[in-house]
Amino acid sequence: MTKENLVTERTLVLVKPDGVQRGLIGQIIARIEAKGYSIEKLELVHATAEQLAAHYEEHEGKPFYQPLVDFMSEGPLVALVASGHGVIPGFRSLAGTTDPTTAAPGTIRGDFARDWGVSVQKNLVHGSDSEESAAREIAIWFPED
Ligand code: UDP
């Protein structure tokens, strides 16, 4: 691939309340930067009910939905926009699988998260799963963008 073909993507990352509460913001951001991605926007926020309803609309009605929204409201979270070639799949690779029990060592979830006995909700981070999701999610957390 030539340099001209490189497309810079943007993704929406959340350091969930468990990551903030456990003091892992710095280590998580360090991994994003160490991979060579740029941090374009960053904010510590206490999520509103409206933001969480929009962010997790695809999961509405599932058994884990309300406990997930409650957990995401427990304390502040960090919302950030990271950019770079392939950052959408790249960050999800850094994050590891949804279930921290099986997330590979070397990933954020694999290294820092574990099953706390309440579903798999406390897995430290969120990362957009497609360009469409990234655009939608960036607009939720950075509406001025
Ligand atoms: N989640 C949960 N129970 C489940 C599946 C998911 O609590 O059985 C939570 C978990 O925090 C996960 C989030 O819901 O990160 C969104 O789920 P998704 O399947 O989109 O996983 P992700 O893309 O975050 O890996």
UniProtKB/TrEMBL annotation:
Keywords: ATP-binding, Cytoplasm, Kinase, Magnesium, Metal-binding, Nucleotide metabolism, Nucleotide-binding, Phosphoprotein, Transferase. It is found in: Cytoplasm. Its main location: cytoplasm. InterPro entries: NDK-like_dom, NDK-like_dom_sf, Nucleoside_diP_kinase, Nucleoside_diP_kinase_AS. Residues 8-145 form the Nucleoside diphosphate kinase-like domain. It catalyses: a ribonucleoside 5'-diphosphate + ATP = a ribonucleoside 5'-triphosphate + ADP; a 2'-deoxyribonucleoside 5'-diphosphate + ATP = a 2'-deoxyribonucleoside 5'-triphosphate + ADP. The active site is at H126 (pros-phosphohistidine intermediate). Homotetramer. This is Nucleoside diphosphate kinase. It comes from Brevibacterium gallinarum. The lineage of its organism: Bacteria, Bacillati, Actinomycetota, Actinomycetes, Micrococcales.
